Amino acid sequence: MHTSEPVNEDHGIACNSCKKPISGVRYQCANCPAPQSGYNLCSSCEKVSYTVHNPMHAFFKLPRPVDQPITSNIPMISELYEPGPSSIAYDIGNPAGAYYLCCSMIVIQMSLRLSHPGVFCDLCVTEIQGAWFRCAYCGKDLCSTCELLDTHNDTHIFLALKSRVSSDSLVFVTSQLTVVLGQHASSEVCTPLW
Known about the structure:
It is built from six helices and ten strands. It is α+β, with helices and mostly antiparallel strands. Strand 6 (115-120) and strand 7 (127-129) form a beta hairpin.
């Protein structure tokens, strides 16, 4: 079951931003190839992921260490965010960062007003505002408040979506996750990742 407090366990991986070992929640880029461990952020650095990594990339939220790394020689999902000011300012020649600081306030202001029209939290049944968490296995959608409180299956991982998502892209990404994770992300029966 999902707990409101993350388990404080060492993932055996350093954060690609602050270079410190990751304990507790780890975020792995879902858009970057991950032949070994991929691009990872600790929970502190993920809060400002748009300043240290491509703001068009989404992250998997891993609340505890996994028994088997999530690896792929190609991007696990295609980009699904709708283009906006943050994508224009990003230096695509440097995927590890170099997001232009002058646009940070634009991104922060956009995230405060972010809405996902037609996407409802499966727990509180309100339209999701701000961060949207989608289960990579069963497609459960949660708002940021309910994601902290939910008793969802702890063996599932969530895709943390922090920008407006193209609905066409989301359908395609769901099919990609089915292949990458080796199961039907929308099925009722979900096999644990770890």
